[in-house]
Design a protein that fits this description.
The chain is of the alpha+beta class. It contains two helices and two strands, in the order ββαα.
């Protein structure tokens, strides 16, 4: 486990002071994801409408998360069905 540390992240041209134990590579992935969304939704720059842009980014990320969770649930269900089917086949063969 990584120790909690204080650091400054720059996201959307804004410096954020945070305390975290999240590994650097995860923070960078998240920062890059948010930067990408800011560029897509807000045109790449932060202005007086920062709060609106960040809310749109948050909504976009939430929607992506929702879709990924649905995909995971669907795939988990399919995997469970296939595993159950394989177990029934093995049982019917006396294995």
């Amino acid at each position: 486990m990584t120790a909690v540390r204080s650091l400054t992240l720059t996201v959307g041209g804004q410096s954020l002071n945070v305390r975290t134990d999240t590994p650097d590579e995860v923070l960078e992935d998240c920062r890059a994801m948010v930067e990408s969304r800011i560029a897509h939704v807000g045109g790449g720059s932060m202005s007086g409408a920062d709060a609106r842009v960040l809310l749109l980014v948050a909504m976009s990320l939430a929607e992506e998360l929702r879709r990924e969770r649905q995909t995971l649930a669907t795939l988990s269900g399919r995997l469970r069905e296939r595993a159950d089917s394989a177990l029934r086949d093995l049982d019917s063969q006396g294995v």
